[in-house]
Design a protein that fits this description.
Blueprint: H1 3-17, E1 51-57, E2 70-80, E3 83-88, E4 93-99, H2 108-111, E5 129-133, E6 140-142, E7 156-157, E8 160-161, E9 170-178, E10 181-188, E11 191-202, E12 205-214, E13 221-227, E14 231-237, E15 240-245, E16 251-258, E17 267-271, E18 275-280, E19 287-296, H3 301-310, E20 330-332, E21 343-348, E22 362-367, E23 372-377, E24 382-386, E25 395-401, E26 409-413, E27 416-421, E28 424-429, E29 439-444, E30 457-463, E31 467-472, E32 485-487, E33 490-491, E34 500-503, E35 510-514, E36 521-524, E37 531-534, E38 544-548, E39 574-576, E40 584-589, E41 602-606, E42 611-620, E43 623-631, E44 641-644, E45 651-656, E46 667-674, E47 684-688, E48 691-695, H4 702-705, E49 711-716, E50 738-740, E51 744-747, E52 753-757, E53 764-774, E54 780-789, H5 814-819, H6 829-838, H7 841-844, E55 866-868, E56 874-876, H8 879-887, H9 910-922
Antiparallel strand pairs: 1-2, 2-3, 3-4, 4-5, 6-13, 7-8, 9-10, 9-29, 10-11, 11-12, 12-19, 13-18, 14-15, 15-16, 16-19, 17-18, 20-25, 21-46, 22-23, 23-24, 24-25, 26-27, 27-28, 28-29, 30-31, 31-34, 32-33, 34-35, 36-37, 37-38, 38-39, 40-41, 41-42, 42-43, 43-54, 44-45, 45-46, 47-48, 48-52, 49-50, ...
Helix pairs in contact: 6-9
Length: 925
């Protein structure tokens, strides 16, 4: 397919999306509600679709196979009759072909597909009988046979190389699904290659076929067809290569060729008695050949020869697109929330159930027009949905693509749909206008991707003016993996794990933009180009941060620094405490002008809470510091990504549940809708030498606002270390939090701002301001603001509309501050219960016996019980063990769980811990 054709595809696609996908819709009953508990789902891998994407560990196929066979970007092709091949998109090779069962059910999207909170993923292995394999080297070469990995040194990391071949050597172009077959497209040097994988059955024998169409080429081409270890005899006869295996020579591998004269056409070569390759001489015309591969008993060889004789070399007419795989459409009706507050969340009902009994767990969405969107799912599907408007009365869903590799991001850019998953950035083309993708084009795969399941392709933003940015997660040790452990919590992964990268607009160049992340998600301002990012609490990430990201910046994780110097760790705009948001999503700037108090604001997505925060930014002469305030609404599921609706200007949110959110919902698209009711959340904050200024949209009750008892203020630092999360530490580095007195409070002339005079204001990681105020109209305002102090400057109170402020009250000594700190309340079971909820314990530990969706073991009956540890030891869950688990959770890990709990050192006082232990003891009964 020429580049000119691709341009035509793009123009044609714009025409397609200008049509209404509801045309000729078979009217069916509207689905008005999604109930995941009652779904009847087919398997994750659909037998009537020709491929799916995965990583694969094929190092243990047996003594006769290559021993270093690992694939990070595998395209598993269903060849029919329970036969399969895994095509390595990085090395352009058949890594393994087999019959029987498919793969072990190991991928995270697969194990959680119908068991929604199952995180027990492992590394996929071949479950059937392997027949043919090649090692980690290019599947093709030009000029001379290549039998070693030729990728550059910077693609190797701790014993593995990740990423594609050099583009001038060979390149994966994409694939064309065509009914139940798929045509692979790639290039070797300057020769374009099309390949149709398949299989035939003869007398019960499976013969694998590779139908290949190659352009004219001026040099000899080599195809690495098979590698056989421990071969005992090899020879070539009548154009077919044979290698016997075993001392008794009772097993035989054969590679043959069809479709060309043996005198002048391709030939089989055997090297070192174990490599079988096909040699294609130069030619000035396009050629079609078929390669046949077989393993079996020597006495069955005639079935192999018969298959070659009977085979007809044909390439399907895929260039015009195939018949639709999913012609049906699903109609849904949304659920509108009552206008009870400033912001409410409506539900865009998902196409569940659907004719394919396919799960739909939404990862992201993008709008194609005012009422049309494309939606990506954790299952690897793309759906089109039409009718997103107003009261969401009737929406039409159509499956558009499938088989993608955990696409976590989707964008509509330059009139086409792009996804970002572990295979890289894919551009989807609908050639024939049937609202299904006919060509899955590799737009860019230059970012390395390891075979670690937690090295997420987490986020992507695209801008005509500023370029394309992607973020990738680190290779976490949360589940079994392939690469070595580098530091606590991190495997080696690839050289691009835990980074943000910039991609050129043509997809031909990528550069590392910033490093040192654990699991970054991004926010991007389309006009200014400001790039922000969150990270997720864990090892070396003490709590949830929001960063302003700059080129060359390092953000704290040593295992993902990918640099030899010792850079200074960038401070975040703000930290967010664990109990407020323990698991972050992305961010979005509200640019539609249709969302009232959120207009022109940065909004932060919380997976763990779940919900949204408005980010209040305070620019000083020395930099930016920020605060977060909750945007209160009902969030039925976690939220990860968002998009502004071009029709109504409201915020649409996508997300699915799996990693221990406080929500029990599985997945949803939610619309945050501005009702134009009065807003009571803060709109600005300032922090400086004199204390804190907090601004509101509404007038406040003066009597309550000027009462210092209306406020509670704390501060603490975090410690970035190899431990999971961090305790809380005072400014002298001792465990604990400092409770700061509000010496006096003032209200501005317009009655919309409060000033809190707070002594001893200093640079600190985290401050918490809880307030109990009342609006002028009588509405109670009980909430909190969480912020970091990166710079302490004069607040310029006069310009902030505060009069007659007595700054002499700030002249207070340390002894007086200490005397204002309240003592701990009495130790009671009820207090322990309240702490269990307040500190977020119930998000990871059930007070009953529930385990689904929980990171930690349940607490019902735990007190006094014998507990099995991951290291094989056993302990009694007494006071000493439970206290140690609260303060030093990484010391003893319960069998079946990971070290994913932060320390509560400094967060809980001794009295707090005693109250918690009393509550946990109560749960024994």
């Amino acid at each position: 397919m020429s580049k000119l054709s691709f341009v035509c595809f793009g123009s044609f696609l714009i025409l397609i999306f200008s049509c209404n996908i509801s045309d000729n819709l078979n009217e069916t009953k509207l689905i008005e509600e999604n109930n995941f508990d009652s779904l009847s789902l087919n398997s994750y891998v659909e037998n009537d679709f020709p491929f799916f994407s995965t990583y694969l560990d094929a190092r243990e196929l047996g003594r006769n196979f290559p021993d270093n066979n690992v694939v990070s970007r595998g395209l598993v092709v269903n060849l029919g009759d329970s036969s399969y091949a895994c095509f390595d998109r990085d090395l352009l090779r058949w890594s393994v072909a087999w019959t029987g069962d498919l793969l072990t059910e190991s991928m995270l999207p697969q194990v959680s597909y119908s068991d929604y909170f199952n995180k027990e993923n492992t590394v996929p292995l071949v479950a059937g009988k392997a027949d043919i394999a090649t090692g980690v080297y290019p599947g093709w070469s030009a000029g001379q046979l290549v039998l070693e990995d030729i990728r550059s040194e910077n693609q190797f990391r701790e014993g593995f190389a990740w990423g594609p071949l050099p583009s001038d050597y060979g390149r994966w172009n994409g694939c064309y699904p065509y009914g139940d077959r798929v045509v692979l497209s790639y290039s070797i040097a300057n020769a374009n290659v099309l390949e149709l994988p398949g299989s035939v059955k003869k007398n019960g024998e499976t013969i694998y076929t590779r139908t290949i169409e190659v352009d004219a080429f001026s040099d000899t081409l080599f195809i690495n067809a098979a590698e056989i270890r421990n071969g005992t005899n090899s020879y070539i006869e009548d154009g077919t290569g044979y290698i016997y295996v075993g001392k008794a020579q009772d097993s035989l591998i054969a590679v043959g060729i069809g479709g060309s004269s043996l005198e002048s056409g391709p030939k089989v070569r055997i090297s070192d008695g174990k490599y079988i390759s096909v040699v294609i001489p130069p030619g000035d015309q396009k050629r079609k050949i078929a390669i046949f591969l077989w393993k079996g008993w020597p006495e069955d060889i005639e079935s192999f020869h018969s298959a070659i004789s009977d085979f007809k070399i044909e390439m399907p007419n895929f260039g015009k697109g195939g018949e639709p795989n999913w012609p049906e459409r699903v109609l849904t009706k949304g659920m509108m929330a009552s206008d009870t507050s400033t912001f409410v969340t409506d539900l865009v009902t998902l196409p569940l159930p659907n004719p394919w009994n396919r799960n739909v767990r939404v990862t992201d969405l993008t709008f194609l027009s005012k009422e049309k969107a494309a939606v990506s799912t954790f299952e690897g599907d793309i759906w089109l949905v039409d009718g997103i408007k107003g009261d969401l009365e009737k929406m039409s869903w159509k499956r558009f693509a499938s088989g993608l590799y955990e696409p976590m991001s989707i964008e509509y850019f330059r009139g086409q749909i792009y996804t970002f998953g572990k295979e890289g950035i894919v551009r989807l083309h609908d050639i024939n206008g049937d609202n299904e993708a006919d060509f899955y084009e590799n737009f860019c795969d230059l970012m390395q991707q390891s075979a670690e399941s937690y090295e997420w392709a987490s986020d992507m933003v695209m801008s005509e003016k500023y370029g394309i940015f992607i973020s990738k997660g680190g290779g976490l040790t949360a589940r079994p993996g392939i690469t070595k452990v580098m530091t606590p919590g991190f495997r080696a992964g690839s050289n691009h794990s835990g980074v943000i990268m910039k991609v050129s607009l043509d997809g031909k160049k990528v550069d590392v933009f910033s490093t040192g992340f654990r699991a970054p998600y991004m926010g991007f301002h389309p006009d200014s180009g400001i790039l922000t990012a969150t990270d997720q609490q864990g090892n070396y990430v003490p709590s949830t941060p929001i960063y302003s990201v700059g080129e060359g910046g390092f953000y704290g994780v040593p295992a993902t620094s990918h640099r030899g110097d010792h850079p200074v760790v960038k401070r975040p705009i703000t930290w967010i405490p664990h109990r407020i948001d323990r698991s972050a999503g992305s961010q979005i700037w509200i640019t539609s002008g249709q969302m009232g108090p959120l207009n022109n604001s940065l909004v932060h997505f919380s997976f763990g809470r779940p919900g949204l925060f408005k980010v209040l930014l305070h620019s000083t002469e020395n930099g930016i510091q920020g605060a977060v305030v909750p945007i209160h609404s009902e969030y039925s599921t976690p939220v990860i990504k968002g998009e502004m609706g071009p029709g109504d200007g409201q915020l649409y949110m996508a997300g699915f549940n799996l990693f221990g959110s406080s929500s029990e919902g599985i997945s949803a698209i939610q619309r945050l809708r501005y009702t134009r009711m009065k807003n009571y959340i803060p709109n600005k904050f300032r922090v400086g030498e004199q204390g804190v200024i907090l601004s509101f949209d509404t007038k406040l009750d003066s009597n309550v606002a000027i009462d210092p008892k209306s406020y509670k203020v704390k501060r603490w630092n975090y410690q970035r270390s190899e431990k999971y999360g961090s305790g809380h530490f005072k400014l002298d580095d001792t465990p604990g939090e400092e409770i700061l007195p509000v010496l006096s409070s003032y209200i501005s002339t317009d009655q919309k701002k409060v000033l809190l005079l707070i002594p001893d204001m200093k640079v600190v990681d985290q401050m918490e301001l809880l307030y109990h105020l009342k609006a002028k109209d009588g509405q109670e305002l009980n909430d909190g603001v969480w912020f970091s102090v990166n710079h302490v400057e004069d607040l310029d109170l006069q310009s902030q509309d505060f009069k007659n402020v007595n700054l002499d009250k700030l002249q207070i000594d340390t002894e007086r501050i200490t005397s204002l700190i309240k003592s701990d309340p009495p130790i009671t079971r009820e207090r322990g219960r309240d702490l269990f909820r307040e500190k977020g314990c119930e998000s990871c530990h059930s007070s009953g016996t529930k385990t689904d969706g929980m990171y930690g073991p349940p607490f019902k009956g735990i007190y006094g019980s014998e507990r099995a540890m991951a290291d094989g030891s056993f302990v009694i869950a007494d006071d000493d063990y439970l206290k140690e688990s609260i303060l030093e959770p990484e010391k003893k890990i319960v069998k079946g769980y990971e070290a994913e709990m932060p320390s509560f050192q400094g967060i809980l006082s001794d009295a707090d811990i005693e109250a918690l232990l009393l509550y946990i003891m109560y749960l024994k009964y």
